[in-house]
Every structure is written in C-alpha cells, then in structure tokens.
Amino acid sequence: MRGAGDGNSAYGRKTFKRSKSHFADRITADGRDGWPVAAARYRLVVSRACPWASRAVISRRLLGLEAALSLAIADPVQDDRSWRFTLDPDGRDPVLGIRFLSEAYDRRETGYPGGVSVPAIVDVPTGRLVTNDYQQITLDFAGEWTALHREGAPDLYPERLRDEIDEVMAGVYEDVNNGVYRAGFATAQAEYEAACAGVFRRLETLGERLSRQRYLVGDSITEADIRLFTTLVRFDAVYHGHFKCNRWKLAEHPVLWAYARDLFQTPGFGDTVDFDHIKRHYYEVHTGINPTGIVPLGPDLSGWLTAHHREQLGGRPFGDGTPPGPVRAGEEVPAAGRP
Q1: How many angstroms separate the Cα of 110 from the Cα of each of 106, 115, 190, 225, 293?
Q2: Residue 281: exposed, middle, or buried by beta-carbon count in 10 A (0-12, 13-18, 19+)?
Q3: CA separation for the pair 160, 137 (Å, rounded)
Q4: N or C: which terminus of the chain carries fewer CB neighbours within 10 A?
Q5: The sheet that has 70-73: what strands, in order across it?
Q6: How far apart are CA 150 and CA 144, in angstroms?
Q7: Residues 6 or more apart from 181 whose CB is under 8 A from it?
Q8: 235 within 8 A of 212, measured Cβ to Cβ
Q9: Residue 96: closest CA among 63, 61, 67, 120
C-alpha cells in the first residue's frame, strides 16, 4: 500500500492504477541480488492496516521468522510525507532511527517512482531499502528463507502445487485483492460497476470451490489462502461501505464467512489483525472519498470468534508442520483492534 505521495485527497479523484514495485531486488539464500538471507540483518516495515503488508506479517509468523527478521509497525494514518513511525517513542523507529519510511527509500534512490509503499524490507546496517515487491516477498519467505524457518514450519508454497497456487492467486489478485481498490477509487459509474461486478463474480466462484474443500489448494494452508484472507478480513469493515462493494457482506455468504473465520481463528492469522488500524487508515486517509474523516463504529466483530465447523471438510491447517507459538512479546495487537 502506497504512501499518499499526491496527497490524501487525491484518492478517489483519479483513475486507480496499481504501481508495479520499483524496488524488486530479492533476498535469497544464494544472495544473487547482493542481499543474502541472514538473521537479524533486515527489518520488515509494515502497516497493520495494509492487506499487502499483512501478507508478510502472517507469513513471517507462520514460518517462525520473528527472531530472524525484526518488525516495524507504522502508524495507520500516514501523512503526505509517507508512512510514519509515530507509534514509537519520539516518533522514530527504534532500530532504523528514522521518522518516515521515505528516508529508507531516499537512501536507496532519489526521485524514485511509485511512492512509498509497505511492505518494505530495509537493510539495517545501511538503512537502505532493499525491496518493496509485495508480490515476491512472501514467496521468498517460503522458499528462500528456509534455513531460518522454525522447526515445524508449514510449507506455504509447495513445489508440487505451485502451478495451481499461482493460477488461483492470479484470479484472486486481479478481481479481489486489487478489484476492491478499482471499485473504491473509481471515478466513473461504468468503471465502478465493472470492478464491483468482477469482485463478486470471483468471490462467488471462490465460494463454490471452498464449499468442497477447506483450503484453496490442497489440504493445508498455502500462500493462496493468505492472499485471499487479507482482503476478506477487511471486507465488511471497509470494502463493503467505504469502497462500495456492497452487493452482500462477507457475513452474509455462508461459505466464505465460515472460511474466513476458520483462518482468523488459526494461530498466525487473526492474532495479526488490527481492526482499529484497518478502519482508521481507510476512513481517515482516503479523504477524497471520505472527506469528513469519520470512522464508523461498526461492524460488530464478535462474529469472528464464533464456531465455523470447517474442520468437517478435513484438511490439516499446517500440513506436516505445527502451529506457531504465542505472539512475540511487543507484537501483540492492542485490545482496541481485536474482537
């Protein structure tokens, strides 16, 4: 999710087009891009409000990379200078020593296109941005960071299922992950209607698939589930009203609502979700479509903790692996953001 490079009021006032990640270096086991996987060298910068960053937070937790890759959490309400570390003492990230994520971008390159986005991985020794490639970061966590995975870490991107996972994720990205933004930031009726119709068409297709199986691909959680979850968990709180994706609520679709609750109640998913950050970011930052900045009181979050009965479909959440342990000290979601 980008910082508001053109000003927060620009949201919803020009046709939406998602930028490709300008900094696409990869952190790999062999260090072929000059960035080898190494414990305690890098810092993952996220906003809990951002679905793209939330993928990385979930993956990091499921794989047990917390000790190897530190986490910086930005204020959900960024200003026109980019994501801010105002949640930290003195408004500075305690590891990087910077007030704005843009400072790490500037140390890498001046005049870069595409704005300041999260997730971002920063090289701690130099303070320089390494990558903001939200599509690749989690795939590399699963495939390149294996030497640093916890014992019992699940295989989130198994080789034998990659073609199917990639196919499913492509549809989820185009129509769901990105589709809600195309609908929400549309500047013309026809543009909005096409995007909104695409969102619900794809959701219905996914619902049919998930009526027969517990997870999107195979019998355990994969990267595909992470990518769908981060949109579904925001759906009723922000996309239904704020982005006008309101043909129905997630809670009104029996299959998708049960699937989302199943994942939410799985260690590594719901314990990373901050509904307070999510709502305040969308409703306060996107002043082009919510000029008053008023944040709604609802929806009622208690339903996220109700029984889902998805275990009746079988499946093993972590495959041959095990659940992650308790949330790392200092990374717990505050009470205001939890059901």
Answers
A1: 5, 11, 38, 36, 32
A2: buried
A3: 20
A4: C
A5: 70-73, 42-46, 120-123, 128-131
A6: 14
A7: 16, 18, 243
A8: no
A9: 120
Residue with tokens 């275990």: 311
Question: What phi and psi, each to the nearest 5 degrees, are found at residue 5?
Answer: -60, -30
Separation between Cα atoms, residue 177 and residue 182, nearest integer Å: 10
- Written as one letter, the residue type at 221 is I
By CB neighbour count within 10 A (0-12 exposed, 13-18 middle, 19+ buried), where does 292 fall?
A: exposed
Instruction: Report how far residue 257's alpha carbon sits from residue 233's, in angstroms, rounded to the nearest whole number.
Output: 9
- What's the pTM value of the predicted model, to 2 decimals? 0.95
Q: What is the pLDDT along the chain (339 residues), one digit of tens a residue?
A: 665 444 555 556 555 565 567 899 999 999 999 999 999 999 999 999 999 999 999 999 999 999 999 999 999 999 888 999 999 999 999 999 999 999 999 999 988 888 899 999 999 999 999 999 999 999 999 999 999 999 999 999 999 999 999 999 999 999 999 999 999 999 999 999 999 999 999 999 999 999 999 999 999 999 999 999 999 999 999 999 999 999 999 999 999 999 999 999 999 999 999 999 999 999 999 999 999 999 999 999 999 999 999 999 999 999 999 999 999 999 999 999 999
Q: Please, what is the Cα angle at 71 between 216 and 278, to 5 degrees?
A: 60
Place of tokens 């307070």: 276
- CA dist., res. 318 & res. 220, Å (int): 6
| Other C-beta atoms lying within 10 Å of the C-beta of residue 122 | 28
Report residue 216 as tokens.
């999107």
Closest CA to 154 of 143, 163, 165, 169: 143
Say if residues 316 and 322 touch (Cβ distance below 8 Å): no
Q: Just list the catalytic residues.
A: 50, 181
In angstroms, the CA 308 to CA 257 distance is 8
